[in-house]
Structures are given as structure tokens and as C-alpha cells.
Amino acid sequence: MLSQAFNISPLLGNLIATLLTFVYVFGLLAILNFCVLNFKLPQDISRKIVHIGAGSTIGFLALYNNLHWSKYLNVSVFVVWIVLLVHKGLFANPNDEAVITMTRTGDRRELLKGPLFFVIIATICGTFLYKNFAGIVAMASLGWGDGIAPIIGCRVGRIKYTILSSKTLEGSLSMLIFAFIASVFFVWLIIPNQVNFTRIFLLALLATLIEACSPKELDNILIPTGVAIAANFI
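^ thats the sequence. predicted structure below, dont judge the formating
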């Protein structure tokens, strides 16, 4: 954590960690916006890179001092984005950075669905499941597993199946692999004494099954909720 590494107060250390999350999130959006406008990066790819990047924000938890109330500032960036997404989803123009980088079709109303659900879930995990095994695996599975799955599925997926929405076997397999790898990494980074490969694999498998059955736009709610609840029993 920053306060111990630099011998500063817990409050100052946590404030610096929070500032770094803002620089990271808004910097990522600026880079992707530039790539979409200048290098014709497809919006569906940009959207999922944002998804993965937002999920990776949990890595900053390792910088926070647990002994000070300011640890809950870790959700500040998500709270700001709740407000921004509601506003942009209602009023933004097509050239808005969030519309360009976080929607599939350029329809601002998409921001009020999956992206908004994501930041609400992230806020809940960062508050009520702060540095908790269940919250970390839930966000890692959502960010990386659900972020990679549609990219692989749409571009290389050949074996299709439909439950409540169309999926591919290749996409689901990539969901399992990246949910597991990301969960192991972030648990090791934040709470290394709780790394349990079997437990994490079972939760990644559950996240994959939930994603396979989830209706469009609801997976950002169903995946982390299911994983967080199941973590109490696995």
C-alpha cells in the first residue's frame, strides 16, 4: 500500500491511489477515443477494451490502506461514472467520447444499460465487498472473462448455440480461461493468502455458465451477483 511504501499518512496514500484510478480510467478512454477516430478501431472492440480496463481497476485496491475510512474512496471513479453515464445516456451527442468508445452502434441509450450496470456493480463490490475474495473474483470474471468472450466469439467463433441469446463455444471457453486467469492474478495481487485454484476455477466455471445463459445487457448484473453469492458456499 502507498502509505507504507512512501511513509505517508493513510489518508494521503489513499487519496493518491484514488487519483491514480481517475488518471487510469479517463486516460484509457482518451486513448481508445483517439484510436476509434484515427485508426478506425471498431466500436465493439473499443467497448470491450473499456470493459476489461474497468474491471482491471480493482488492481488499484492493492494500493489502499485498509485501516482508514478513506479506503472507500476506491469507488469514487465509479460513482462519478454513474452520474456521467446517466447524463450522457440521456443527452450526449454522437461525437461524445463515451458514446464512441462504450457503445456498439453509437446509440447513446446503450450507456444506460450494460455500462451503467457495470459501474453500479463495481461500486457495490468496492464498498460492501472491499478486498473480499468474492468481490475480487466477481469483478475479475466480469471484467476479463465477459470482456474477452464476445471478442473471441464474434471473430473466431464457429460453434454456435442459443439459450437466451446467441453464443459460441469458443467465446464461452475463452470466458472460462480468462475469468480464471484474471481471478487468480487479482486475488494474488490483493489478498495473496486466499489464492485457491480449485475454488477460483469453480467460480470461473459458474461465471461462464451464467454468461452462457444470460440475456443481452443483463450479464453485467447476473455474472458478478452469481459469483459473489456462490463464493460463500464454494
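The two ends are 29 Å apart (CA to CA).
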